[in-house]
Amino acid sequence: MEFTGETSKFGSLRICDLRKELSKRGVKLSGRKQELIDRLEAYERDFNFGKSQVVNQSEYQMVTPKEHLYKDLHEGSVIPEITMDNIENYLGSLKKSLSRESINLVNEKFLIYIKNIEETVAFFFKSQCIAEMLKHVKYNIDIAVNSHGLIDKCH
């Protein structure tokens, strides 16, 4: 799979400038240029790990079932097939693409759990993952998928 994310605003900086930016944020300074760029991007994506004001995310809120109704997702769970095409189509409708960082959060075991519940209107999935740079920062994830495996909403 190719990643079609935007070119990083840090890509044109020299290594010494990248380290200055990292130093301002109190983050690890060692590594190759791409690692430094990735670290800065992660830092910005994670809102400077709570050291800056968090953007109001109310536009992304969705109504979900009560948390205690969800069950752990396991091998025997019956859920609709969710394909990469379905994910890419949903993101494309929002003018976004699946990022390398998102895939890495799953591949590198940053995902803490996945639970689901089937309701008449959709299958709901609830998950949590650890931030790339600070393990104490966690993201809550909610996804609603219809019976055909198409993503209706996510937060």
UniProtKB/TrEMBL annotation:
Q: What is the lineage of its organism?
A: Eukaryota, Metazoa, Spiralia, Lophotrochozoa, Mollusca
Pfam annotation, one family = SAP
- Supply the InterPro entries for this chain: SAP_dom, SAP_dom_sf
The record's annotation in SMART domains points to: SAP
The cross-references to Gene3D superfamilies, in alphabetical order and at most eight, read: SAP domain
Q: List residues traversing the bilayer.
A: none
Identify the residues that the record assigns to the SAP domain, covering every copy. Answer: 10-44
State what protein this is by name: SAP domain-containing protein
